[in-house]
C-alpha cells in the first residue's frame, strides 16, 4: 500500500498507528488486518466515509457481542 494512501486513511480516522519518538509510523498486526479490510471494502466500491461507518459498526457489534456473552455467562 502506498504511503499517501496510508496518510489518507489516517487523516480520515480509519487507522491510528503507533509512532516512534521520531514520528515513524509503526503498524501492529491489528493495523495490518484493518488495512486488509479497508482494501477489500475499497475493491467493493465503498468510499472512505462508508468504510468509516462500516468499521465503527463492526466495532460496536463486537462490543455488544462481548457484553452479551458476559451477561449470558454470569446468569
TrEMBL record:
Alphabetized Pfam families for the sequence: MerR_1
Entry keywords, A to Z: DNA-binding
PROSITE patterns hit by this protein: HTH_MERR_2 (PS50937)
Domain HTH merR-type: 1-57
Molecular function as annotated in GO: DNA binding; DNA-binding transcription factor activity
Superkingdom in the source lineage: Bacteria
SUPFAM superfamilies (UniProt xref): Putative DNA-binding domain
Listed name of the protein: MerR family transcriptional regulator
Source organism of this protein record: Ornithinimicrobium avium
Amino acid at each position: 500500500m502506498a504511503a499517501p494512501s496510508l496518510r489518507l486513511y489516517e487523516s480520515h480516522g480509519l487507522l491510528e498507528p503507533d509512532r516512534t519518538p521520531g514520528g515513524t509510523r509503526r503498524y501492529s498486526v491489528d493495523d495490518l488486518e484493518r488495512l486488509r479490510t479497508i482494501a477489500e471494502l475499497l475493491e467493493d466500491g465503498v468510499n472512505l466515509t462508508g468504510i468509516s461507518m462500516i468499521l465503527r459498526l463492526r466495532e460496536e457489534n463486537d462490543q455488544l457481542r462481548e457484553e452479551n456473552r458476559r451477561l449470558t455467562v454470569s446468569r
